[in-house]
Design brief:
Layout (H helix, E strand, L loop, with lengths): L15 E2 L2 E2 H11 L4 E6 L4 H7 L8 E6 L4 H8 L7 E5 L3 E2 L5 H9 L5 E7 L8 E4 L2 E5 L6 E10 L14 H10 L3 E6 L4 E2 L7
Parallel strand pairs: 3-4, 7-11
Antiparallel strand pairs: 1-2, 5-10, 6-12, 7-10, 8-9
Length: 203
């Protein structure tokens, strides 16, 4: 992965950041916003996460675990569907949108007709953008002219998972594409910075 050799023997989410596992900071952030039930999709070296956090009590959340069999982010979410609520928030395992106003994000989702609502940050100078936004409106995904990035927090109606084929790998790009083509994707634009551990430079 992009974090090798750090991830050769350590689950990516367990990499220490300022002395603590990265995922501990994510769980505490979710707890602070009132989330008390979390489903963790674990894959490579995921037993390290299960053994460390157990039922989640140390972070004031209740954790269930679902196996990620290298099915891509949304393939893993599809596999976990039976333990998900009708509406839920997905947070990528390497993202920390700590400054996101989750209350406003949820209100924006509730006011929309979308089944998938992405928190986005606009910065045309980035080389990892994947969204095209004009005047607060999503106009394209993974296309020329992208000027914003998915910051790793997405609100979803479980009906969105019906658009994911069974028994196949399905990435974030795949999901953005199918939801955009069915006019079921919307965005909430935040001007707050976010953090991630996607590569060595980010660490």
């Amino acid at each position: 992965t992009r974090l090798a050799p750090l991830t050769d023997a350590t689950a990516k989410s367990m990499i220490p950041v300022a002395g603590r596992p990265f995922i501990a900071r994510q769980l505490e952030w979710l707890s602070w916003w009132g989330f008390d039930e979390v489903v963790l999709c674990i894959g490579h070296l995921g037993e390290q996460i299960r053994e460390y956090f157990m039922d989640g009590g140390s972070c004031d959340v209740s954790i269930e675990y679902a196996m990620d069999d290298h099915d891509g982010v949304y393939g893993a979410v599809k596999n976990a569907a039976e333990v998900l609520d009708d509406e839920f928030m997905l947070v990528y395992g390497d993202s920390y949108p700590v400054h996101l106003d989750v209350g406003e994000f949820i209100a924006s989702y509730m006011d929309s007709d979308s089944l998938m609502h992405i928190a986005a940050y606009i910065d045309a100078a980035r080389d990892d953008n994947n969204l095209q936004i004009s005047n607060g409106i999503l106009t394209g995904v993974d296309c020329p002219g992208v000027n914003a990035i998915d910051i790793g927090a997405t609100l979803l109606d479980r009906q969105a998972l019906e658009y994911i084929p069974k028994y196949t790998s399905f990435s974030t790009g795949d999901m953005r594409g199918v939801m955009m083509s069915n006019r079921l994707l919307d965005v909430y634009v935040t001007d707050e910075l976010f953090y991630h551990i996607g590569d060595h430079d980010a660490l």
